[in-house]
Amino acid sequence: AFGHCRSLEGIKLPCVSTRLESLHWEMGPNEILNEIEGMPGISMVGGEILISDAPLEGGESWTVCKERLNRILGLLAYYEMKDATTLLELALWKANILEKKIASDDNRQTSRVEVPGPVKDSVEQFISNNRMR
pTM for this one? Predict the structure, then answer.
């Protein structure tokens, strides 16, 4: 599509960069950044993900770039879901503590709530469906 565009130096992906910055869990961003660093032609520049035109000049196709981008998007989606379910569990735990008016730390631990697998699956499906809109 841009093969004959001589002024194209790269493509910035600000929406993907914003999603990466919004992750709360430390392992997610680190794993994704490590993945980006290992991908030729894709880098972080000024906090934004940039796809350089260099790999395309070297004979790689857009298909290869799309595969790399899909890998990054897949990791983002995984860690976003992890964040969402963790926040849900924390909110339910807090609601349980407030409902029972628990003051001591020992009793707080026993009030911890874990979201069952089927509920997590439904929440993840809901989040992913709403993110695509």
Answer: 0.66
